[in-house]
Amino acid sequence: MASSSKKFITSSILGLSLLVALIAFILKFKSSQKLFSAEELALYNGTDNSLPILLGILGSVFDVTKGKSHYGVGGGYHHFAGRDASRAFVSGNFTGDGLTDSLRGLSNTEVHSVVGWRDFYFRSYKFVGRLVGRYYDSQGNPTKYLKGAEAKAARGAQLMEKQKEMEAKQPSCNSRWSQDDGGEVWCDNGFPRLVQRPLEIALTGKMSKRCACYNEDQLDQPGLEVYSGCDYLANRCRV
Q1: Which of 74, 116, 131, 211 is deepest in the core (most CB within 10 A)?
Q2: Domain-wise residue ranges, the chain
Q3: What InterPro entries would the database entry show (predicted)?
Q4: Percent of the chain having pLDDT more than 90?
Q5: Which of 3.40.640.10, 3.10.120.10, 2.60.40.2550, 3.40.50.300 is the CATH number of 35-161?
Q6: Is the whole model's pTM more than 0.90, yes or no?
Q7: Of 158, 161, 191, which is closest to residue 174 (Cα–Cα)?
């Protein structure tokens, strides 16, 4: 009986010690993650060599100093340094109002792409804290905007998966392009046609259509477009 009580007490103490250690680790981890204001983050834009280069995306802040040739002054991605320019990761607008953390008006698939970029930085660079503002509150907790963006990204992922399944049923054309000869599409089996992608999938104008190969008995389907200047039953078209 005494031996059983001793074991119980020992295991209880061990369990309590593990719980205390876990709580201490969580508190230490949280305290090591800094909360930045927009003004403070702007100081880390690569213009001061004594400071690291930081960027934000969806409110998460990363140290990108190891990529100084890209994110430092004169680098191709310097416009991302010292700010959260989440929208620019998919819009390609790197000036003025384009360098904003607002995702207003972006499609589900575009928001999914922004989240994909954030995941890239988590994999490739050191996460150093959170930016207080649109995506994190003054305590570092996620806001409704971050939760909304992640929900929209999840819907985007589902739409893209559905699109892949649809496109797998109808094979894509072969294609090639050269500066001298221009572009060409062709089908090993069937005939090339332009087919509309769902608007939710299309990220930019030209991506709203794709080239797919159709058999002759499928060519009367609505929505199929013959390439300009290409014969109706040609299996190869200049573009």
Answers
A1: 131
A2: 35-161, 170-238
A3: Cyt_B5-like_heme/steroid-bd, Cyt_B5-like_heme/steroid_sf, MAPR/NEUFC/NENF-like
A4: 67
A5: 3.10.120.10
A6: no
A7: 191
The position carrying tokens 């953390």 is 101
Cα separation, 171 vs 191, whole angstroms: 11
What would the 3-class secondary structure string for the chain be? CHHHHHHHHHHHHHHHHHHHHHHHHHHHHHHHCEEECHHHHHHHCCCCCCCCCEEEECCEEEECHHHHHHHCCCCCCHHHCCCECCCHHHHCCCCHHHCCCCCCCCCHHHHHHHHHHHHHHHHHCEEEEEEECCCECCCCCECHHHHHHHHHHHHHHHHHHHHHHHHHHCCECEEEEECCCEEEEECCCCEEEEEECCCCCCCCHHHHEEEEEECHHHCCCCCEECCCCCCCCCCEEEC
Amino acid at 231: D
63: its two tokens = 């140290």
Distance (Å) of CA 131 to CA 49, 94, 142, 213:
22, 20, 10, 48
Q: Which residue in this structure is represented by tokens 């969806």?
A: 58
Mean pLDDT by 10 residues, the chain (239 residues): 55 57 47 86 97 98 97 96 97 92 92 96 98 98 98 90 81 90 94 79 56 95 94 95
Token pair 């109706």: residue: 232
Q: Each residue of 36-81: pLDDT tens digit? A: 999 999 999 999 999 999 999 999 999 999 999 999 999 999 999 9
